């Protein structure tokens, strides 16, 4: 398996990207001495050498940060941050991979964050006043003593997420296990899979089913999901041929290591450029809210620091196939400062304490067995 050989390239820049279909998947590893960073966008998005390689149908590993989403939506950011990382591979490797099994972990959270609870209360009042319908607020968790190799192995073997990735660009590391895409394009067919509505995993099969039924019958969760499904349809409607946007399925339950979610799938046919696709669908409504621009303005106001790569897009780009995972359930390392981040969708009927616990439960998905010793609540 390719992921076992990543340590050989610690002195290089690399991008490991794996997409699963059930227990089987395809892993890719790209390696290079150099990588590129874009601090501003232009009309010629991804032009030059990268554009030429994409047109040759070669894969380019890339990460679009949340700052690019703010750029497209004219949102002022508190600090300057790169919009886009990409790497022109000098070497690449590809292999099939199989998960032997994956675990279920039941975590009952009773996490207390008074500051975040107060912010959520204010946001609920704004929603009830008609300012917006939903906003996804997030917070950062500081970690320590993280073994990245062990974490990657855990994501691949113990979780059931759609994507596993580990990108190293200079002093930045991004390692995650994401259940959701921002978009996937295969020969002009674009797919978006919005996820909204969360419950923890049960302590046994019976308890798990009770929590699943509770989620499927919760009006607040279904309302939130419908809003984000409509947002995904509208986003695709702007870049797809008329009459081609369809909902493949709606509010299907998918189960992961510590949580279970409601998931929908929307597809359409598009000939839009990558720049126009990013401008239309980015950021995902599931990490911003509705209406999207107002939600993003409030995120910028209420969150203590910028999101950086969190809630961005990470994956591989080529002419005929592009697959960008949503950067959630992810651990970040910048100059040896290691963090995780998690959010919760706030609507008019939200209960602040429940939303805080949802953030912590989601963070546990990536913290795994580090959570007792490594969460630093500064």
From TrEMBL:
Residue ranges occupied by any Chorismate-utilising enzyme C-terminal domain in the UniProt entry: 119-362
Domain of life: Archaea
Chemical reaction(s) catalysed: chorismate + L-glutamine = anthranilate + pyruvate + L-glutamate + H(+)
MF term (GO), any: anthranilate synthase activity
Biological processes per GO annotation: L-tryptophan biosynthetic process
EC number: 4.1.3.27
InterPro entries according to UniProt: ADC_synthase, Anth_synth_I-like, Chorismate_C
Family to which the UniProt record says this protein belongs: Belongs to the anthranilate synthase component I family.
Cited PANTHER family: AMINOBENZOATE/ANTHRANILATE SYNTHASE, ANTHRANILATE SYNTHASE COMPONENT 1
Protein name: anthranilate synthase
Annotated organism of origin: Picrophilus torridus (strain ATCC 700027 / DSM 9790 / JCM 10055 / NBRC 100828 / KAW 2/3)
């Amino acid at each position: 398996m390719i992921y076992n050989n990543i340590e050989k390239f610690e002195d290089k820049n690399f991008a490991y990207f794996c997409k699963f279909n059930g227990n089987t998947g395809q892993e890719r590893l790209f390696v290079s001495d150099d990588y590129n960073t874009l601090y501003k966008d232009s009309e010629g998005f991804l032009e030059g050498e990268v554009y030429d390689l994409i047109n040759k149908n070669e894969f380019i590993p890339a990460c679009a940060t949340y700052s690019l989403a703010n750029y497209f939506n004219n949102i002022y950011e508190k600090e300057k941050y790169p919009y886009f990382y990409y790497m022109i591979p000098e070497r690449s490797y590809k292999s099939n991979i199989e998960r032997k099994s994956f675990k279920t972990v039941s975590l009952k959270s009773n996490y207390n964050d008074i500051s975040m609870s107060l912010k959520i209360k204010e946001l609920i009042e704004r929603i009830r006043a008609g300012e917006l319908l939903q906003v996804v607020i997030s917070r950062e968790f500081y970690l320590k003593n993280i073994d990245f190799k062990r974490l990657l192995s855990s994501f691949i073997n113990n979780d059931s997420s759609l994507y596993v990735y580990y990108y190293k660009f200079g002093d930045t590391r991004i390692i995650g296990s994401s259940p959701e895409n921002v978009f996937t394009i295969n020969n002009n067919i674009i797919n978006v899979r919005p996820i909204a509505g969360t419950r923890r995993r049960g302590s046994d099969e019976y308890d798990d089913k009770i929590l699943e039924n509770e989620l499927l019958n919760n009006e607040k969760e279904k309302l939130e999901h419908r809003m984000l499904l409509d947002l995904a349809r509208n986003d695709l409607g702007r870049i797809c041929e008329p009459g081609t946007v369809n909902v493949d399925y709606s509010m299907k339950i998918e189960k992961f290591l510590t949580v279970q979610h409601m998931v929908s799938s929307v597809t359409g046919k598009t000939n839009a450029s990558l720049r126009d696709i990013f401008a239309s669908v980015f950021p995902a409504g599931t990490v911003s809210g509705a209406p999207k621009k107002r939600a993003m303005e409030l995120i910028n106001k209420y969150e203590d620091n910028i999101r950086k790569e969190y809630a961005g897009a990470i994956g591989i780009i080529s002419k005929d196939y592009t697959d960008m995972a949503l950067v959630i359930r992810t651990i970040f390392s910048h100059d040896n400062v290691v963090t995780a981040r998690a959010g919760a969708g706030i609507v008019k009927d939200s209960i602040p304490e429940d939303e805080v616990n949802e953030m912590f439960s989601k963070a546990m998905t990536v913290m795994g067995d580090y959570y007792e010793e490594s969460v630093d609540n500064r």
